Amino acid sequence: MPQIQLYDKYGRGHNDLRISVTDRCNFRCFYCMPEEGMEWLPHDEVLSYEEILRVVRITTELGFDSFHITGGEPLLRKDLSLLISGMLDIQPEMDLALTTNGILLPTVAEDLYKAGLRRINISLDTLDEEKFLFMTRRNQLKQVLEGIKSASDVGFNPIKINAVAIKGLTEEEIPRFADWARETGHIVRFIEYMPLDADKTWDKDKVLSAEEILAGLSKNCALELVSGNISDPATRYRYEDGKGEIGVIPSVTRPFCEDCNRMRLTAEGMIRTCLFSNDEHDLKKLLRGNKGDEVIKKWLGEVLFTKTPGHLIGQKEFVQPDRTMSAIGG
After folding, report:
1. N or C: which end of the chain has fewer CB within 10 A?
2. Do 77 and 48 form a contact (C-beta atoms < 8 A)?
3. Would the pLDDT of 91 be above 90?
4. Per-residue pLDDT tens for 202-256?
5. What is this structure's pTM?
6. Residue 320 CA to chain centroid, in angstroms?
7. Cβ neighbours around 90 below 10 Å, total
8. What is the CATH number of domain 6-328?
9. What residues contact 231, with CB distance under 8 A and at least 6 apart?
10. Dihedral angle computed from the Cα positions of residues 253, 234, 56 and 114, in that order, rounded to the nearest 10 degrees
11. Which residues contact 72 (CB under 8 A, 6 or more apart)?
C-alpha cells in the first residue's frame, strides 16, 4: 500500500477520500434535503470522470488507499462503472466502496460488480412502509429491498445497510434490523442523527445515542466488540452466538475526530476537510487551470493544515453547515 504523506497540524495522517459524483438525488429524506425546491448543479460545473481520476491518481501518490463514492445518489451518474474500473486501474488494491439508496441497483449491480466494485453500502432507515414514506418522502421501500437482493444476487457480500437512528421515530427499528441482519447476513450500521438537514430542524434531543442503540440491540442476545480499522467510522459488534454483525456510527455522542483520516471532494470539485466544516477549497480551479500535479499536491497539503481538531456538535460554538449532506457528499 502507498505510504501516507499528508498530515494535518495535529499529526493525523490522511489516506481516505470520499468522492461525491453528483448532488442529485431521487429521494428527499427529511434529515438531508427539503421536500422541494432543490437547485441542481449545472452539468458543466460537475467534475468529469477524467478530472476525478486525476484526483484519484494524485491522492494515490500521496498515500491514499481508501476511496468512497457518494452523492447525492451516485447511481444517477451515467456509466458509473467506467469510473470504478478507472479507479481500480490506478490502484488495484485500493479499498473502494459506494453508498447508494439502492433503487437503481437492479439495473446496474452486475455492471458495478464486473467493474471490480466489491463493497457496497445501502441506505435504509426503516423496514416499515409508512415510516419509509415519511422519512424519504418516497413510497419506494419495495424497490430498495429489491435493490439489496440484486446486489446480493450478483455477489456483493457482505452488504452494509446504513440506518439513521432518530429518537421518537426509529427505536422500534433497532430489534427489527437486528433480526433481519441475523437472518440475511447483511451488516446493519446505525448512524446517529446529525445536523445536516436543509430545514434546520435538527435537535440534539432527537439523537438516538450509541448507548441507547446498543441497549436495544443486546436485549435478546449479548454483543461482543469486533476490532475494526481507522477507515471505518463504525464501531463494530457481533452477537456472541456468532450470528449477525452490527455497527454503530456515533458521530454526535462519541465523535471520532481525533482519529479522522479523511478528506471530501464535492461533485463540483471543492475539497472539504470535515463533513461539518463551513470552509471549502476550490480544487476544480486548479484542475481546469492547467496546474501541474506537484502544484496540486502542495496545495492539498496546505489545505489539510487548515483542518480543525473536531466538529463541535453540541457545543455553543457549533455552526451547522450551509450545505446539506446531499450537496456535500454522504
Report:
1. N
2. no
3. yes
4. 788 888 998 999 888 887 778 888 865 544 678 888 888 878 888 898 888 877 7
5. 0.92
6. 18
7. 16
8. 3.20.20.70
9. 15, 16, 66, 95, 261, 262
10. -150
11. 20, 21, 22, 23, 24, 25, 267, 326, 327, 329
